Amino acid sequence: MELNNNFVIELENLTKYYGKYRGIENLSLQIKKGTIYGFLGPNGAGKTTTLRCLLGILHPNSGNISVFGEKIDRWEANIDLKEKIGYLPGEFELYRHFTVKQILDYFESLRKRPAVLREKLITELDLDESRSVSQLSKGNKQKVGLVQALMHNPDLVILDEPTSGLDPLIQHRLYLILKELRKSGRTIFFSSHNLSEVQKIADEVAIIKDGFLVSHDRIADLSLKVQQKLNITTKIPIPATICESPLINRYDQIYSMNGDHRYQIWLHRQNQNLSKVFGLLEEFQLLDVALPESSVEEYFIQYYSENKEEHRDVDK
């Protein structure tokens, strides 16, 4: 079947249970070609289960999977599709008696596609091919995993917690590599519990909670839903009745220090009108105003602080 120009990945009502315990339930996603798609959630939310079902490592109880327009019933029948995919599992194990070069040679021998990006990735990720796997730190093992997943320039890249163990400099280099792949038309689907990295590189993000998809947004749109913090210091104490104003959604923190009255007010970005808020507060003699940078982290925490279940089903 020809490449689907609209969606590289389509998951429809995907459900996976481990016996009586839920992994994911009725999860549906559509991922467009040429995007970096973040799959966000804490450990145990169902991220790894989703990726393993997508790749045929696990068999779902129900639901449909389509990759490059081809419906996946058994990966054995879609073996040629695997040539187009690069995958980094969340738990990446290596033969300890091999050198890095031997490991990468082995992975290269398994594929028909040439490893055209191998040397470039080794250089950019600062990986020493001569070292034995037994001598590698967690971060260097992760580099090996990334090189094997990306070196054949796959059309679809699937990464499970790709920055685990990497130092900040290598993380930054990885972000640049993924953006370059996107620019060339590749599609990247990666899971993470790292909120800042999703915000930095993803075009779209899905948030998963307890096996259910709870949100799907473009990063730009998601940022608009985040509440904005307004930190102020006034000379005159602000009465609690100010919270009743429709301009202020929540009065979060009040404390006094050395006679100064400091407050934190939360405002929904799409509804806020700062000039009117300042007008409302000016009678209390504003001494200082600060607008701390908000991020997707606040939005993420909102989902996980509300309606928590008493227990989790699986840790996948």
Strand runs, count: 14
Class based on secondary structure composition and strand pairing: alpha/beta
Main sheet specs: 6 strands, mixed
* CATH homologous superfamily (4th level) name of the largest domain: P-loop containing nucleotide triphosphate hydrolases
Ranges where pLDDT stays below 50 over 5 or more residues in a row are 309-316
Helix content: 25-40%
Mean pLDDT comes to: 83
Task: Specify the overall morphology.
Answer: elongated
Number of self-contained structural domains = 2
Number of helices: 9
What topology, given as strand order, has the largest sheet? 6-7-8-3-9-10
Top-tier CATH class of the largest domain: Alpha Beta
Order of helices and strands: EEEHEEEHHHEHEHEEHEEEHEH
| CA-based gyration radius | 24 Å
Task: Predict the CATH topology of the largest domain.
Answer: Rossmann fold
Q: What's the CATH architecture of the largest domain? A: 3-Layer(aba) Sandwich
Strand-residue proportion: 25-35%
How far apart lie the N and C ends?
32 Å
Top keywords for this entry?
316 residues, 28% helix, 2 domains, 6-stranded mixed β-sheet, disordered C terminus, 9 helices, alpha/beta, 14 strands, Rossmann fold, 4-stranded antiparallel β-sheet, elongated, Alpha-Beta Plaits, single chain
Could you characterize the architecture of this molecule?
It is a single chain. The protein is an alpha/beta fold and 316 residues long. The protein folds into two domains: 7-95 and 152-223, 3-Layer(aba) Sandwich (Rossmann fold); 227-294, Alpha-Beta Plaits. Helices cover 28% and strands 30% of the residues. It has helices at 47-54, 100-110, 118-124, 138-150, 168-183, 195-201, 219-225, 274-281, 296-305; strands at 7-18, 21-32, 36-40, 62-67, 70-71, 85-88, 156-160, 187-192, 204-209, 212-218, 227-234, 250-257, 260-268, 286-290. The chain has a six-stranded mixed beta sheet, sandwiched between helices. Residues 309-316 have low confidence and may be disordered.
